[in-house]
Each structure stands twice: as C-alpha cells, then as structure tokens.
Design brief:
The chain is mainly β. It has two helices and 37 strands.
C-alpha cells in the first residue's frame, strides 16, 4: 500500500533570489532505449538515453523542433515551449528563452547563438553573451516578410531561406552584414524556366565542410525547393560549388512530395528523404541516384549521416494511438535498417564528427512531453549523470523527513492552494532528513514575489510493475515483439474484413490502439 503524508513548510523569500534554472525533470527522465535485436542485421543497433528539458506532468514542455551542439557538452534545443541550453551533453537543461514559437536555432560558440522566432512572420535573434542580451541584425529588419523555411549557420557563414516567393539571405562575416539573393526565383539555368517556392525550401551544406573552406567561400551548397510551373508541382534540386556564386540544376526526376528531408555528409554523398519511407541516395554529387526504402511506409521527417554510411532517419509518428517505430539506423548507406527508438516523434538530429549524436522531438500523447535522445557511447558517463540528475539548486533550502527510503514529490503552493512550483516528482530520497532547494521561480520560470509559501509533500516506496495480461488480443505474446509473433490484430475492435491471394489470407480490423489492424496467415 502506498503511504501518504503531507508536509507543510512556511518559506519567506528575500530579494536575493536569482535567475531561472531548469525545471524538475519529468516523465521521460532517464529512460534507456535499447536497439531492437535482429538476426538478419550485420550490426548491433545503437542504444539511446531518453530524457527531456525538464517539463513536469502539470507543466509539460510539449515539443522540440531543433537541436544544435558545438561540442560533446554544450548545445541548445527549442520549439513551442521555449529554448533551452545544456552544458553537460543534454542530460540537464536550463531555460534560455520563454514559451513561444522557436522553429530554428544554431549555436556556433559557447556564447554565440542564433535563433528564429515567430509564427506567420519570423524574426532572427542573436546573442554573443550566452543570452544575457539579444539583438536583431540591422540588415534584416523589415526584410523577412514571410516565414523562414530553413536556417543554416556555421563559422562565419549563414543562410536564411524564406517561403512564399520571398528572397534568401546569406552572410559571410558572422552575421555582421546580410546579402539578399533570389536563388530560386531568378535562377539562370539554360532551358530552365523560373522556379517559384510557395512554402518550402531546404538547404544542406555538407557536414564535413571545414571552417577554413567556409571562410574562403570554397564550399558546396544543395538547395531543394518546388517548381510551381509544373503540374503537379515537382521538387527541384540545385547545387552551387562556389558558396552560392553560381548554381546548376541537379536531376532527381519528377518527384512531387508533401514532406522532404535532405542531408549531405560530403560534397558527393547525400540523401533525400521522401514520402512513404522512400529515400534517394547519391555517391557522386547528384549525377546518379539510388533508391532506398525504410521498412515502413511513413513520411520521412529528419535525417543524419556520416560519410561512412552510418545514419539515422526519423518518420512521422505523431498520432498517439498509432505511434510505433520512430527512428531507424543504417550502417550501409541505407540498404538495411534497424529500429532504434519507438513511440516518440523525432523532429531533428544534431551530430558531431566524433560520433556524438542527439535527437529531439516529443511524445505523441494527449498531453505531449518533449524528448531528448542521447546516443550512448563509451565516453558518455551515464552513471555520473544518475548521481546528479535528482539534485536541486537554489538559495532556499527545504528540509523534510522521510520515514523510509523511497520516492518523494514536493509541490510549492500559495496559502490559497494555488500551485506555484512542481519542485520534484518521484525523486529517490533516503530515510531520515533530506534537503532540497528552490530557486524562487514558478512553473513558467518567472521569479515569484517575496512572501509566504506552503510546501506539500508525498512519499511512497518503490513502485514495481508486473505484467498480467493484455485484453482482447490473441497474439503470443499479446504485445508486439522483435520476432513478429506477438500483438496479433486489434485490441479494440473485432475482425470485420477478409480477403486472400494464392499465398495468404488477410484479416483486418477497422481500428487498433495497440498491436496491428491486419493479420496475414497461410
């Protein structure tokens, strides 16, 4: 039986409280997700450590759309719930920007950060002091009239691609000045009509491009957009070998897509992700393309690869009652794939040359929570993080007694019962007196007013889960497994359809919240 006890503590706050720290860790904290074992693969799938930026059950951070790292420790991530910064490789996060819409961001130095903000109209923000102050480039004020479709920044080179037939912008001096270029709308290619981009452009500068080559303008750019002069509209890929001075069209055939992703690991080696799990792969800078396919027919969202052909691809997985396989891994340029993450929506990857990799997104649930997936490597000390992940910081000490070793939850309220701060949730604490700390902020990261506040606490022993059964499923086991012998048919509706061919009989259900809707038998 779970025992409950309420602890009341009065706290008086002085005016010495300091700035925002990260929230108490939330529901995805500390989940290790192993790769799915397979006897048909020539490699062992990678493992990821799943955490989040610190949202709680009552105040979740409901999604991340970008992630960027400069080394194995320092990086940023952001989305609809704000922008966050980490200095320990993604295990803990501190809020950098408040809630809003932050679709893109790049960190190019420990304190040098670029962010894109906005919904219908976007704004570019820059800081050189780690976020203490922010400014907008003078050259861009009033010129970005549509939303930004893609954003790139590395070293002194930056590119902004806008939508709605808008111009592109680029900088070669670290953002001090920005130039305008209508790359697509006025592309001068023999035999090619003008190209209009109604809502999407994508840029990929090969990830192995050195800072020295960027500085000299000696680098390759790939841009993918839509030619609205065709019916249906077709994707068009263009390429520059001299940093955007001149361009050429790259033939990818007639492709009409609603979602695309693109990633080039070198000037020659690149991938384009399409709808329904289809992938185009080139080894020679787009002269020829090979077609690959994920083992699932879902649209591709994001990609990351290295030049040796090791890579990860995420797919659309945002409907909670059909969420399943989320991220696939390959070691042979896309010929074979293994599932490495399930049941989340991954929107972006960030990788380093040393093999460190991060992925961000959200849980596709009724109340979504953001997700940070960290590729596990020997140089990542998970045990060290485990020792510090449940610590709290701040100038206000909160002392309380645990009658036995177990988990504690602490909530700070106003005297009228209004919740101010979810301090910790199910954090392990030892028997006896314990001390946690409050930094004086509420659940929105704002400093509270000085006054009296009440602390309420709940403690209980460890909760162990025991699987009993799954209702209404004839599989053995009833849940899905790696050998595909479990999770037969729906857990919600009866079979209603049947058909066959010369080899198999197919039985289908109209809806499933778990398992599958179609069963093939011989």
């Amino acid at each position: 039986m779970i025992k409950k006890q309420t602890i009341y503590v009065l706290i008086s706050l002085g005016l010495f409280l300091y700035g925002t720290l990260s929230y108490a860790q939330g529901i995805w904290e500390g989940k290790t997700y192993p790769g799915i074992k397979s006897t048909t693969l020539s490699f062992s799938p990678s493992h990821f450590f799943l955490t989040n930026t610190g949202g709680t059950w009552t105040h979740p951070h409901n999604g991340l759309s970008f992630v960027s790292f400069i080394n194995s420790k320092i990086g940023i991530a952001g989305g609809g719930e704000g922008v966050f910064i980490t200095k320990d490789g993604g295990f803990t996060w501190k809020r950098l920007k408040p809630r809003g819409n932050w679709p893109y961001g790049k960190i190019i130095g420990e304190k040098n950060i670029w962010l894109v903000e906005g919904y219908q109209h976007h704004y570019l923000w820059h800081t050189t002091n780690g976020g203490k102050t922010w400014s907008q480039p003078e050259d861009l004020k009033g010129k970005i009239t549509n939303y930004i479709a893609d954003f790139y920044f590395k070293g002194n080179v930056g590119w902004i691609l806008t939508s709605g037939w808008g111009p592109c912008f680029y900088t070669i001096d670290g953002g001090k000045t920005w130039q305008v270029t209508d790359v697509f709308n006025h592309l001068n290619i023999p035999g090619q009509t003008s190209i209009s981009i109604p809502y999407r452009q994508i840029i990929s500068i090969p990830s192995d491009t050195s800072l020295n080559n960027l500085k000299k303008g000696n680098y390759t750019i790939y841009m993918l957009g839509i030619n609205t002069n065709t019916n249906p509209w077709n994707e068009v890929l263009i390429k520059s070998k001299n940093g955007g001075i001149s361009w050429e069209k790259v033939n990818i055939g007639k492709i009409s897509q609603s979602n695309v992703a693109m990633y080039f690991a070198t000037n020659q080696i690149g991938w384009i992700g399409l709808n329904n799990g289809k992938i185009l792969f080139t080894r020679n800078g787009g002269k020829t393309w090979e077609q690959e396919h994920l083992p699932i027919n879902r649209n591709i969202v994001a990609m990351w690869f290295n030049k040796e052909g090791h890579g990860f691809v995420s797919i659309e997985n945002w409907i909670y009652n059909t969420a399943n396989r989320a991220v696939f891994e390959t070691h042979d340029y896309g010929k074979s794939w293994a599932v490495v993450i399930k049941a989340v929506q991954i929107n972006a990857f960030a990788g380093l040359k040393n093999g460190d990799l991060w992925a961000v997104g959200n849980t596709p649930s009724v109340v979504p929570q953001d997700v940070v997936a960290i590729l596990q490597k020997p140089n990542i000390n998970i045990s060290q993080y485990e020792q510090t992940r449940y610590s709290t910081q701040g100038p206000v000490p909160i002392k309380y007694y645990m009658p036995y070793t177990g988990d504690a939850t602490l909530v700070i309220e106003k005297p009228d019962g209004q919740v101010v701060k979810d301090l910790i949730g199910n954090y392990p604490r030892k028997k006896g007196w314990n001390t946690d700390y409050w930094n004086g902020t509420d659940n929105n990261g704002h400093l509270v007013s000085p006054g009296k506040y009440i602390l309420k606490g709940l403690y209980h022993g460890k909760i162990n889960l025991l699987y009993e059964f799954t209702y209404g499923n004839p599989g053995n086991p009833e849940y899905e497994n790696a050998t595909n012998t479990g999770g037969w048919l729906s857990n919600h509706t009866d079979p209603e359809f049947i058909t066959s061919n010369k080899n198999m009989i197919y039985i289908a259900c109209p809806f499933a919240e778990g398992a599958t809707t179609v069963l093939a038998i011989n």
